[in-house]
Amino acid sequence: MFTDRAIFYRAEKGFDHMKVALSVGVQEMVRSDLSCSGVMFSLDMESGFPDMVVINGSWGLGEYVVKGIITPDTYTVFKPNLSDSSLWPILSKDKGSKDRKLIYDKKGSTIEKQTSAVTAHSHSSQM
């Protein structure tokens, strides 16, 4: 919380250094060979629009999504619609080309596997 970068950011944005908080989300790990993973941004990273959630997902471990090695599926969600069950919050679902995935082998090391054409072109959320 008190690295040079964090201090500079708060000073530039006018945040009080003693009134900020840090949180960590912990999730149970799933089997990367059978499932998908991804990254969620709490706002639209391109425009900065705060009422959007952008989710990138792909098969296997999330490392290929984070490093930009594959083109993930992208889901765009409008946050205000989440609180009203009569409204549909998902604004878009864009399929990425997920031709490979990174998974754990039996020894705990990571290995790359090619995905089948059917798997590569299906939404990673449809397990």
Describe the overall structure.
- This protein has one domain: ATP-grasp fold, B domain (D-amino Acid Aminotransferase, Chain A, domain 1).
- Helix content is 14%, strand content 28%.
- The chain has 3 helices and 6 strands.
- The strands form 2 sheets. The protein has a 4-stranded antiparallel sheet.
- It starts with a helix and ends in a 7-residue tail after the last helix.
- It has helices at residues 4-13, 63-66, 117-120, and strands at 36-41, 52-59, 73-78, 90-94, 100-104, 110-114.
- The mean pLDDT is 88.
- With 127 residues, it is an alpha+beta fold.
Supply the number of helical segments.
3
Mean pLDDT: 88
**What is the total domain count?**
1
Q: What structural class do you assign from the helix and strand content?
A: alpha+beta
The largest pleated sheet is described as: 4 strands, antiparallel
**Secondary structure: number of strands:** 6
How far do the termini sit from each other?
38 Å
CATH architecture: 2-Layer Sandwich
Q: Which strand order does the major sheet show? A: 1-2-3-4
CATH class: Alpha Beta
Computed CA radius of gyration, to the nearest angstrom? 18 Å
Would you identify the regions where 5 or more consecutive residues have pLDDT less than 50? none
The H-and-E topology, N to C, reads as HEEHEEEEH
Shape assignment: globular
* CATH superfamily heading: ATP-grasp fold, B domain
Q: Do you know the CATH topology?
A: D-amino Acid Aminotransferase, Chain A, domain 1
Strand content: 25-35%
Q: State the helical fraction.
A: 10-25%
